[in-house]
Write a structure and sequence with these properties.
The structure is a single chain. 49% of the residues are buried. The strands form 4 sheets. This protein has a 9-stranded mixed beta sheet with strand order 3-4-5-2-1-8-9-13-14, with helices on both faces. It has a 6-stranded parallel beta sheet with strand order 17-16-15-18-19-20, with helices on both faces. Strands 10-12-11 form a 3-stranded antiparallel beta sheet. The protein is built from 17 helices and 20 strands. The protein folds into 2 domains: 254 residues, Rossmann fold; 183 residues, Rossmann fold (3-Layer(aba) Sandwich), CATH 3.40.50.
Length: 462
């Protein structure tokens, strides 16, 4: 199949979140399976500044190559993309975001014809590219070049929808007849994600459980009705992990490489982590690690409520990340009270992140909701046992064979589950079995890519 990815961010060129990881890794896995893939993304200032080998395709279009021969095409526009941020400036959305990404969507479709790439599938991602399926079914409906092209729209987080005022609708270039309940209208506002969901051939999201959750009022962010209406076209596929980057056998950042065959070497990483975080060198204490945005969605509301009780247990806790200043302050106060228990690192540090995955015994991820989550998947490969709230992708990847989970979102249940996990840690036989089972879990992109190919085939049959 010929597959074109349209994405607003792609690793290694530009990234603000997990969308970029998917848009960079999935095409590589598809190429390995014999599919013909291209990627289209904006030519941000960050892309131009970086030391990537860029080739000129035509006026306004440049490209680079990843994998064996995947061309990543960059849509150039100094007016729209030559800015420091991808979507925001100083925490505020750019006021012309609708115009910027409407331009990107239309230009991406035109590019396929210009380079004679007759895509079987255009795989769009999130609200920034949600106009692609809308345009194909409307503005390009009579163009024979796109006659056999089908669209898949992936929702990475339904909380981000591309909402704009009704007055901006003409900037889409669409007829006002599409501003209705079955189109892009959403409580008298423009909703780009809703439009994409209404017009695409297949909707998918990043875990099977999340695909069910977003059909409910609690997790649907107002779009549960659209998803329920299209539930026969809605699927969930787990994101994968690139084990060449996140794997203890070849991780260049950690103290000592290890594998299931020499699991004892993992504990050299624990000592190294304790040392770098100024914690007592205690192999007998369970070490809990967190790599996260410090936000309510990530479970820091219940963690903050429970933190004093947690610190009174026989354990250690290393936290890496930034977020809500409220949680910075609460956790900072705990460090003053329990300096030998907590190490708080309010920053982004890739090396420390790798060492937390490798050196911790338990990986804490009590997210209130989590479309997929990568932290728990990464931790499994390092034999660091995940402890999660059973939601979204966390529920799909963590079970009694490889970790710990709780089903009622509360600080009491979090504390109870930590006690259960630390009790298991004290039994060497139980813990060794759990670690071995965790490390043998396979959530690679190779597996997810095979399922995506099946999904593309479904789209072709529409």
């Amino acid at each position: 199949m010929k597959i074109a990815f349209a994405a607003s961010e792609v690793v290694p060129f530009a990234k603000t979140g997990g969308l970029a990881d998917v848009a960079g890794a999935l095409p590589l896995a598809l190429e390995k399976l014999g599919e013909e893939v291209i990627i289209i993304m904006p030519a941000y200032k960050a892309v131009k500044k970086a030391a990537f080998k860029m080739l000129s395709s035509k006026e306004g279009i440049s490209y680079s190559i990843i994998g064996k021969n995947i061309k990543v095409y960059f849509i150039e526009s100094d007016c729209y993309f030559n800015r420091d941020g991808l979507y925001q400036d100083k925490g505020l959305d750019y006021p012309d975001n609708l115009e910027r990404f409407a331009f990107f969507c239309k230009r991406s479709i035109d590019l396929l014809k210009e380079i004679n790439f007759r895509a079987d599938i255009i795989h769009a991602h999130d609200w920034q590219t949600a106009l692609v399926p809308v345009y194909l079914k409307t503005l390009y409906a009579k163009d024979p070049f796109y006659k056999n092209t089908r669209t898949v729209l992936t929702i990475h987080n339904i909380g981000y929808q591309g909402l704009f005022s009704k007055g901006e609708f003409p900037k889409t270039g669409l007829d006002w007849s599409l501003f209705n309940i079955d189109g892009l209208e959403f409580y008298d506002r423009v909703n780009l994600l809703k439009g994409g969901m209404e017009f695409c051939d297949i909707i998918n999201t990043v875990s099977p459980t999340y695909s069910k959750e977003i059909q409910t009022k609690e997790f649907g962010f107002g779009l549960e009705g659209v998803l329920t209406k299209r539930r026969n076209r809605l699927f969930g596929i787990l994101n994968g992990v690139d084990y060449s980057i996140w794997g203890p056998q070849n991780d260049k950042f950690i103290v000592k490489n290890f594998s299931p065959k020499n699991i004892k070497d993992k504990y050299q990483n624990k000592l190294g982590l304790q040392k770098s975080c100024n914690l007592p060198l205690r192999s007998d204490l369970p070490l809990l690690g967190i790599v996260s945005r410090l936000a309510e969605q990530k479970g820091f509301d219940i963690l903050a409520e429970a933190i004093d009780s947690i610190c009174k247990m026989d354990l250690q806790l290393v936290i890496l990340g930034t977020g809500d200043p409220k949680y910075h302050e609460i956790l900072g106060d705990m460090v003053k009270i329990y300096p030998k228990v907590i190490s708080l690192n309010l920053k982004f540090d890739d090396t420390l992140a790798h060492n937390i995955y490798a050196g911790s015994d338990i990986f804490l991820m009590p997210s209130r909701y989590e479309p997929c989550g990568l932290g728990q998947i990464i931790s499994l490969k390092y034999g660091t046992i995940p402890l999660v709230f059973a939601t979204g992708g966390l529920a799909d990847t963590v079970n009694a064979d490889n970790g710990f989970s709780f089903n009622t979102y509360s600080s009491e249940e979090l504390v109870k589950t930590i006690k259960k996990a630390t009790a298991a840690f004290s039994d060497n036989k139980i813990w060794a079995k759990l670690v071995a089972q965790a490390m043998h879990c396979d959530f690679s992109w190779d597996e997810s890519a095979k399922i995506y190919i099946q999904l593309y085939a479904k789209a072709k049959q529409v």
